């Protein structure tokens, strides 16, 4: 004979509908809570209450970025990108000027055949020698003195491929000027 279930052992009836209602109810409660918190975080036309300000500060500490800050960040990034482009362009022109001065100091056989490996090696060696002690002429000395330490460091690390590309640009410019 089966023992009758006592009150402590009896389980309440769990129907699928009842569970769905509970889950839906919890979802609607959390959605409502999120909407209320979102309202607290929106920027207002009038000064925020201390509760608004406390919520906003807590959200910022947790990593939230308000939409109006995102617009300011975008403007800041655009300005920084333009500034960086100007700096890179200036460095490229200085690098080309130094490369032209290095090319002038090469032997005639290297100047006549500028794309030969031997010529490029000699050009690279002459270019790199500008950043170390020695007499390089007035123009090169003035250019090097005007460089910041950061610019000097970047120009010292110029790769061979960059020098070749700049050499091609310079030769094109020279040909256009002489024609």
Description:
By secondary structure, the protein is an all-alpha fold. It folds into 2 domains: 21-64, no CATH class; 87-178, no CATH class. It has 8 helices and no strands. Helix 3 crosses helix 5 and helix 3 packs across helix 8. It is rod-shaped and about 85 Å long.
Give the topology.
Layout: H1 16-41, H2 50-61, H3 67-104, H4 108-112, H5 117-129, H6 138-145, H7 149-156, H8 160-178
Helix pairs in contact: 3-5, 3-8
Task: Sum this structure up briefly.
This protein has 179 residues and is mostly helical. It has 8 helices and no strands.
Helix content: over 70%
Number of strand elements: 0
Distance N terminus to C terminus? 115 Å
| Mean pLDDT value | 81
Class inferred from helices and paired strands: mainly alpha
Provide the β-strand percentage band.
under 5%
SSE arrangement, N to C: HHHHHHHH
Radius of gyration: 35 Å
Number of domains: 2
Structural shape: rod-shaped
Largest sheet: none
The tally of helices reads: 8
Spans of at least 5 consecutive residues whose pLDDT stays below 50 are 15-24
């Amino acid at each position: 004979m089966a023992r009758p279930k006592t009150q402590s052992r009896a389980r309440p009836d769990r129907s699928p509908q009842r569970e769905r209602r509970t889950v839906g109810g919890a979802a609607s409660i959390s959605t409502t809570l999120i909407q209320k918190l979102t309202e607290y975080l929106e920027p207002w036309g009038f000064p925020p209450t201390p509760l608004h300000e406390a919520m906003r500060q807590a959200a910022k500490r947790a990593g939230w970025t308000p939409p109006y800050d995102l617009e300011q960040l975008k403007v800041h990034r655009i300005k920084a990108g333009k500034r960086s482009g100007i700096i890179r362009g200036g460095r490229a022109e200085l690098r080309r000027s130094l490369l032209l001065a290095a090319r002038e100091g090469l032997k005639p056989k290297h100047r006549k055949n500028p794309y030969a490996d031997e010529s490029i090696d000699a050009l690279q060696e002459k270019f790199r020698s500008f950043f170390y002690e020695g007499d390089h002429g007035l123009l090169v000395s003035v250019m090097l003195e005007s460089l910041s330490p950061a610019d000097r460091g970047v120009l010292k690390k110029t790769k061979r491929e960059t020098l070749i590309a700049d050499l091609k640009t310079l030769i094109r410019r020279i040909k256009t000027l002489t024609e």
